[in-house]
Every structure is written in C-alpha cells, then in structure tokens.
Amino acid sequence: MNHRDRYYWFPARKTGWGWGVANNWKGVLVQIGIPVAVFIAGWYLLPRREAALFFGIFAVALVVFVALHWIKGEPPYWRW
Hints:
single chain; mainly alpha
C-alpha cells in the first residue's frame, strides 16, 4: 500500500468517472453506514406516511455521501 492509497479513503475508478470501493475502514464505514441509515429511515418513516421527512433525510444523506467522497476521495476524472 503506497502513500496515495493511505491518504485517500476512496480511490478513483479504473475506468469511467467517480470513485471505487473504499480502501480503508473509514471509507467502508461511510459506504455501508449511510445507505443503511437511509434504509432504516425509510423502513421507519414510510409506513407512517411521512414521505416528505424521509425524502428530506434521503437528500441530506446523499449530499453528505457525495461530499465525503469528494473531500476524502482521489480527484475524479474520466479514465478510459
């Protein structure tokens, strides 16, 4: 593991644009934790007909998810 791999939580994808699978425990926690939190919020809120609150939580979680990838990930660019 080189310095670049230790510095970034999310390496850039091999092809395309964006980030791949996390390469340390902090990134794995983000990539598993945020979708699980959204799932739990949906499981709890949607049967109670609180869709607006759920979609608000979903939007905030999505922004946090992308922001963490942008801040802690390798700079994305298009790769062939």
